[in-house]
Description:
By secondary structure, the chain is mainly beta.
Amino acid sequence: MLLALLAGCKDEPEQIPTYIDIQPFTLNAEGGANWQKITDGWLYVNGEFLGAYTLPATVPVLAEGESEVIVYAGVKENGATGTPSIYPFWEKYTTKVTLTPAQTIQVKPVTAYDPQAQFAWALERSTFDSGSSVVITDRDGDVAREFKINTDGGFVGKGVVMEVDTGHIVMEIATEKAILPTTADRQTWLELHYRSDIPFSLTLVGTNDPGLEQFFSAYEFYSTDNTWNKIYINLTEILLESKLDKHGLYFRALLGRDGTGKYPQTKGTVRLDNIRIIHY
Length: 280
């Protein structure tokens, strides 16, 4: 009996993992992955979710033999590091590999926009480089200072430039409106490249009647110290609240004062490019 008990107490042999080395995503779309900010890979092996990892990443896996590996491309929802999210408009990457304990298998995931995804405006219009661009109008009433669309403003090619100074402290612009879904089962996101040396804000403006608009606060941007950034903003909840027929984007740049009422800087510039609203 004692021998049987001792035999039952022996430790099971430690299972040796296989390592999956996930490389950064390749994106089959204009600009490729360089135009995006794919930060994470969400890993599934044989249907089991193993976690979301900052890429590149090497992940230990306790599985052997022929296995299905799926990787979803992830972004930081609303630009926040604490809200990693699978980007719903890119296709998952699926491959078959043979997992062998103690060995490393490299996976180079590739994705593309889901063919079922819809863009509010044709992609060539959102880059501001074609003959027909997204229509933008001045909304601040200051006729002495208007926004610009030029090559000095773009991430690549042309882009929108908003400039303010102590004589013109605010600039407000709005895009044309588009019909967007207002139900929870159809997500809607905004993709945007931006570069700024001052904070600025985004509001969603909706209407059922061209003469009557409603405004919904969407996002507050910080200065990027004049370097380009890419952001993915989830507009779904705002559209659920709105329920209006059409919506556009309303950007506001303001030269702010400090606690003493003085301007910390005498001018500020906001640049916008590749403004894409995408939904199902």
